[in-house]
Amino acid sequence: MSGARIFRAPGRVNLIGEHTDYNLGFVLPIALGLETRIYSTPSADGRLRVHSTAHNETRDWGLEQIASCTPQSHWSDYFIGVAREIAALGFEIAPLDLKIESTVPEGAGLSSSAALEVAAALALLQGRTLDGLEIARLCQRAESGFVGMPCGIMDQYVSLFGREGAATKVDCRTLESEAVPLPAGIAIVAVNSMVKHSLGQSAYRIRVAECAEAARAMGVESLREATAEQVNMTLMPEVVRCRARHIVTENLRVEAFVEAARTGDCGRMGRLFSESHASMRDDYEISCAEIDFLVGAAESLPGCYGARMTGGGFGGCTVNLVAAEGAAFFIGAIRHIYQDAWGKNPQIVECVPAAGAGEIL
Ligand code: ADP
Ligand code: MG
């Protein structure tokens, strides 16, 4: 596509703060070098057309159809959901030929969905200015309201506001963020289990509802407001208490992790990873056998400070905090151990914090 405008949006790995975003708590993601690009040229026939290279499929719409289209349980829902939101804000959608290319693995917990949404938003805006926070919000509305995944705002937010060279701590209540530089000498390694259990989507929805139930029982607007004591003392079903305990303790772990990162305490950072994983496994019940195996194997390797699942759960990736000088050994060893036990070759990514989305000029 010569002469195409190119818009890019990164995937992300969340260091700590899992399922806290829709509870208006804290998260600490980094934007990745893995990204989704959309190549854009004017379309000759007045229609809006999008092609996904990964799926080798094209969809198109008349501009007048956009406002009234309905979800099709298809990848293009993410795209047209964003188009609807942009149109609803009063922006005219131009007739475009768009091509999606992505290096973010789909369904691996590295947020290919938000990378697609944000790249789509930028491509459809064609350089017209809209506040980044508004873009994050409209992409989240597209995923929760149109695609039907009741997600928080972390993925879209960091895809837009990620920073080179630092993690981004986001307060999901105020939507303010700060850069959190990581200590020198550590590597962040994502290991993709290459499994995605089908339980994921329905379980996510159930967790969102359980958190709302816990907040109602405690009389707080969101679990962000709840304390560990309230969680212990309030009458609620035991399983709901466990969910709430994960959220309340996870928010504290994000703050402790940021503190440890600022003081260069890699040992503490690693221990917080382990505690976060145990909480996701036992209280939030969103892990699975492959992921627990990867976490256990990683923590037995020299130079690994700690490991945890990252992303929505039931498969996807672990994130590992590793001494930089031992990273090459770690990657070779974890690949070998996982392949031996599960017969799958894991995709492994060394995560270097990259900048948020934009047009490639
Ligand atoms: P994650 O965001 O962790 O990768 P999700 O289940 O939230 O997993 O989103 C994955 C979905 O996003 C895919 O199943 C597909 O529908 C859509 N998607 C992501 N990237 C692309 C792409 N390059 N082309 C088409 N669809 C994509
Ligand atoms: Mg996603």
Task: Give an overview in words.
This protein has 361 residues and is of the alpha+beta class. The chain folds into 2 domains: 5-178, Ribosomal Protein S5, domain 2 (2-Layer Sandwich); 181-351, Alpha-Beta Plaits, CATH 3.30.70. The protein has 10 helices and 13 strands. It has helices at 76-88, 112-125, 132-147, 154-161, 199-218, 228-233, 238-262, 266-282, 289-299, 327-342, and strands at residues 5-14, 26-27, 29-42, 47-52, 57-62, 96-102, 167-171, 176-180, 186-196, 304-310, 315-323, 347-350, 358-360. The strands form 3 sheets. It has a 6-stranded mixed β-sheet, with helices on one face. It has a 4-stranded antiparallel β-sheet with strand order 10-11-9-12. A hairpin with a 4-residue loop joins strand 4 (47-52) and strand 5. Helix 1 (76-88) crosses helix 3 (132-147). The structure holds adenosine-5'-diphosphate and magnesium ion.
In short:
The chain is α+β, with helices and mostly antiparallel strands and 361 residues long.
Structural class: alpha+beta
Top CATH class of the largest domain: Alpha Beta
Named CATH topology of the largest domain: Ribosomal Protein S5, domain 2
Instruction: Describe the global form.
Output: globular
Question: How many individual domains?
Answer: 2
CATH architecture of the largest domain: 2-Layer Sandwich
Low-confidence stretches: none
Fraction of residues in β-strands: 15-25%
Strands across the major sheet, in which order? Answer: 5-4-6-3-1-13
Question: Level of helix content?
Answer: 40-55%
Work out the number of β strands.
13
Terminus-to-terminus distance: 15 Å
Estimated radius of gyration:
20 Å
Query: How many DSSP H or I helices?
Result: 10
Secondary-structure element series: EEEEEHEHHHEEEHHHHHEEHEE
Q: Round the mean pLDDT to the nearest integer and report it.
A: 97
